[in-house]
Amino acid sequence: MGQQLLNAIFIGSIYALFAVGYTLVFGILDILNLAHSAVFMLGAAVTYSLVVNHGQSFLVACAVGIAVTAAMGLVIEHVCLRPLRRRRAPPIAALISTIGLALIIVAAIEQGRPDTIFKSLWVDGANSVSFPAGVVPNPTWYVAGLTLEASKVAIIPISIFLMLVLGYVLRYTQVGRGLRAVAENPRAAQLMGLDVDRMISLTLIISSALGGLAGILFGVALGDISPYIGRDNVEVRGLAVIVLGGMGSIPGAVIGGYLLGMVEVLALVVLGSSARGGVAFAALFLMLALRPQGLFGAKLRERI
Amino acid sequence: MKVVRVVSCLVAAILIAACGSGGGSSAKVIKLGAILSITGAGGVYGPQSRDGMMLAVKQINAAGGVNGVQISLTVKDDASDKAQATQLTQTLIQQEQDLALLGPTLSNSALGAHPLAETLKTPILAVSTTGIHIVPDCNFPASSTACKYVFRDSLGEETAIPDNIQSYAADQHPKTGVLLVAQDDKFSSDGGAIVQTTVGKYGITLLKTIKFNKAEADLAPYVTQAVQLHPDVIFITSLGGIPAKIMTEARKQNWKGQFLGGNGFNTATVSTQAGAAGTGARSGSAWYLGNNFPSNADFVAAYKAEYNKNPDQFAAQGYTAIKILADSVSRANLTFSDLAGDRDKLRTAMESVNIQTPLGPFQFTASHDVKQTVWVIAMDGNGGFTLVHEIPAS
Question: Any idea which of A115-124, B64-73, B90-99, B354-363 has the lowest mean pLDDT?
Fold first, then answer.
C-alpha cells in the first residue's frame, strides 16, 4: 500500500501542477483554455527533441522547453483569445478556438518526421518515446521496501514550491493584485488604469509555463512522450481536478490534483484495475451533482 | 481557320493515341494496395512492414517483374484507426481497382477491413495481424463461415504464445504468474485470453489479471499491484510502447522475475525502448535476424543495403507477403481485363503457394493461416534479440 500511496502522490503532483495553470486562466478570464493539454505535451516534446536530436543538456532543454511553452501562452492569447475578446464573442467561441489550436499543435507534432518541415521540433511522428537512460540523472533508492525514484520524488517539492510561489505572487505583489483585479472586474480594472491586455498575456504566460513544466516532469517521470500525452492523460483529468477543487481556485486545484491521484489509486486497489479509468469522470460527476462549486469554490466573489 | 482545325485534329488524334497506348500499358500492371499503421499505436510496426514490401517490389520489378509485368504498390496510412482502415479498404478495392490488398497492421483494424474485402471478393493478405479469428472466420462473431479471400502470413498468437510459455515452463518450471493486459484493444485482449487458457497446462497459477487502458501513461500503480504478488512470471500481451514501460517500471520496483509476451515484443523498437530492463524477455517470433538460410540472409543483406539498418519481424513479413503475391500471380494466368475474374484466380493460386522466404519455407494451411517454424527469442538488452529455441511447425 505504501508504494501505491507514493504512486498516487507522484501522479497527483503532476495533475496539480497541470490544473493550477488550467484554473489560473479560468479564474481570470472565465474561459477554459483547452489548448492547455497541448501546451503540456509541447513542453515534453520540445525538451525531448533538444536533448535527443539536438544534443543539448537536460537543463538547457528544460529551460528552452519552458520558454517555448510560455511563448505558446502568448500565441494562445494573441491568436485564440484577444481577437475574440475585441469582438465581445461569447466564452464558447474562445473554448472552440483553443480546441482548434490544441488540434493544430498536436497535428504539427504528429507530422514531425525526419523528412518534414517539423523535423527540428519532433521526428518521431505518432510514436511514444522516452529519454534515453542516463540523460536525466535518476538514482533510485529503496527505503523500507519502497522504491523511490529521484525523477518522481523531485516532482513533489518542485510542484509544491512553484504553487507556493504562485500563491505568494498572486496574494502579496503588485502584479498579483493587478491579476486579481482583472479577475474581479476587467472593466473596472481598466478604468483604474490597469493594462488589462498585458495582465491577461501575463496570465497565459504563467499558465502555459506551468503546463509545459508539468509536461516535462511527466515525460521524465513516466517515460512516455508522444503527441497524445496531453489528450490521453491530463485533459479530462485536469478538468475533473479543477471542478473538484472549485473552478478558478488555485488551492482547490492543488488539493484536487492530489485527491484525484489518491482516488484513482484507491479505486485500483479496492475495485480492481479496470475501475481506475472511470474514476475521474465519476468524481467529476459526483462533485457537479453534490457540490457544483467544488471544494474551494464556495464564494465565487474572490477567485484565484 | 483551316490550319487551326487541322492542328486541333492532329492534337486530338495524338491525345487519343496516347490514351490508347497509355490505357494499354496501364492495364498490364499488377496493382496492389497496402493499408498500414504508419502513425498511431501501430506506428511502431507499420513502417517496417512498408519498408519490407517496398524492398520486395523494387527487387521484383528490377528483375523484370512478374512474367514481364511490373508491380505497383500503394501504401496508405490508417493511423491505427479501425474506421480509417475500413474506409481505405473500400477506396482501394472500388476506386483504385487494386488486384489484391495487404494489411491492415492491427488486428483491431482487421475487424473492419477484412470482412469488407471478403464481401467485395478481393484477396487480402494480412502481414502483422496475429489476433484470434483473423483467419479463417474473419466475420466472427457475426458468422463462423470461413472467409475465402482473407489470408495471413503473420504467425498467430494462438500458436506463438503457447509455444513460448511451453518452452519457458520446460526450462525454468515457474509456478506463478500475473497477466498485465490492455483491455481496450483486440490484439492485447486476445493475447491475454490465450495466456489465461494456456498457463494451467504447464502448471503455472495465474495469480491475477490486471487490466488497464492502452492510452494510460501512468502504469506504475498497475505494475506495483503485479509486483506485490511476487509472481515468477509477468505476462505482457500489449503492443506499442506498453511492454517496454511495464518492464522498466517493474525492474525499478526491484522485481527480478521473467517477462513473457507475444508479438508486441518482436520489434527492435520495443527491445530498444526496454533496454536493460528487457534483458531476457521472451516471445515466440515468426522470424529471427540471425537465421542464415539463403532466403533470409539475402533478405537481411538487401534490407541493410537499402535502409542502412537491420530489418525486424514486421519487415520480413511484409517482404514475404509481396513474394507470396508475386508467386501467386505468376501461376494465376491473369487476364488483366476481367478484374473480378483475376481476383478469383489469384485467390485460388495463393492457396497453393509454397516458396522459400525470410520466415523459412512458407505455405498456407487449409484455413489460410501460417504454417511455419516458431522462433523463441529473448531481448538482449541492447535493442536486439537472441535465439532461445526453434519450434518446428506441428
Answer: A115-124
Assigned C-alpha cell, A172:
502579496
The answer on B309 and B164 residing in a single domain is no
Same domain, B144 and B176: no
B326 inside domain: yes
Chain A residues with CB under 8 Å of B308 CB are none
pLDDT in tens, B215-256: 888 899 999 999 999 999 999 998 878 899 999 999 989 999
Rama region for B98: left / alpha / beta (φ>0; ψ in -120 to 50; rest): beta
**Residue B168's domain is classified under what CATH number?**
3.40.50.2300
- Whether chain A has a CB inside 8 Å of the CB on B230: the answer is no
Residues B237 and B280 in one domain: yes
Q: Does B43 touch chain A (CB under 8 A)?
A: yes
What confidence category does residue A299 fall into, taking pLDDT thresholds of 50, 70 and 90? low
**Among all residues of chain A, which has the CA nearest to that of B42?**
A127
Alpha-carbon distance of A18 to B263, in angstroms, equals 36
- Cell triple for A8: 498516487
- Domain positions in chain A: 16-132+140-229
- The separation between CA A106 and the C-alpha centre of its own chain, rounded to angstroms, equals 15
What is the distance in angstroms between the Cα of B276 and the nearest Cα belonging to chain A? 9
Q: Is residue B38 one of the residues assigned to a domain?
A: yes
Co-location of B183 and B278 in the same domain: yes
Residue from A58, A22, A20 nearest A251 by CA: A20
Instruction: Please report which helix (H) or strand (E) contains residue B191, including its range.
Output: helix B186-198
Indicate the residue type of A2.
G
Q: Which residues of B touch A110 (CB under 8 A)?
A: 39
Q: How many angstroms separate the CA atoms of B266 and B386, rounded?
A: 11
Pairwise CB contact (< 8 Å): B218 & A127 = no
**Do B147 and B205 belong together in one domain?**
no
Q: How far apart are CA A219 and CA A216, in angstroms?
A: 5
Q: From B78, B110, B269, select the one nearest B187 (Cα to Cα).
A: B110
Q: Do B204 and B72 reside in the same domain of the chain?
A: no
A4 to each of A149, A158, A270, B123, how far by Cα in Å? 14, 21, 12, 50
ipTM above 0.85, yes or no: no
Contact A273 B212 (CB under 8 A): yes
B201 in a structural domain: yes
Summarised one tens digit per residue, pLDDT across range A134-146 is 788 888 888 888 8
Residue A273 has pLDDT above 90, yes or no: no
With CB atoms and an 8 Å threshold, state whether A277 touches B216.
yes
Chain A residues whose C-beta is within 8 A of a chain B C-beta are: 3-4, 7-8, 10-11, 110, 125-130, 133, 140, 142, 147, 149, 218, 222-224, 226, 228-229, 232-233, 264-265, 268-269, 272-274, 276-277
Three-state secondary structure readout of B201-231: HHCCEEEEEEEECCCCCCCHHHHHHHHCCCC
Q: Is residue B4 part of a domain?
A: no
Is the distance from CB of B275 to CB of B248 less than 8 angstroms? yes
Q: Are residues B381 and B261 in the same domain?
A: yes
Residues of B in contact with A277 (CB under 8 A): 212-213, 216
* B287 touches B313 (CB < 8 A): yes
Task: State whether A223 and B248 contact (CB < 8 Å).
Answer: yes
Q: Are the beta carbons of A179 and A202 closer than 8 angstroms? A: yes
Residues B120 and B80 in one domain: yes
Domain assignment of residue B228, given as a range: 158-285+376-391
Number of domains observed in the structure of chain B: 2
